[in-house]
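re the bet — no i am not wrong, look at it urself. input seq straight from the record:
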Amino acid sequence: MNQNQKVQNPETNVPKNPQMNERDFVNDMLAMEKYMTDAYCTALNEASCQHLYQDVMALFTESQDCQRHMYNLMFKNGWYGIEAADQQKLQQSYQQFSGYSNQLPYMN
């Protein structure tokens, strides 16, 4: 597969002017949700009691679901593209790391 091939839907046109358009608003919300899920991860790692952990986990899940919704919306409208994976590189990485499973305590 071509190394720089993009996977992307046709772009939904939005007005290109100094004012924020629909794409700008969704992109801003996506960035905010990514920031929030990162912050919630830190809070989860440092939560000192189970009740606090559960409350933060509920907020994290809600924020993560919202982030995924924003990503799907942007991808559907062609505002977010991803690079196609090179199958040969994937196979090489798989072969390189497949022998490491015996070093992981939870894989035994």
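see?? The beta strands are 6-7, 82-83. told u. also The chain has a mean pLDDT of 88. so pay up
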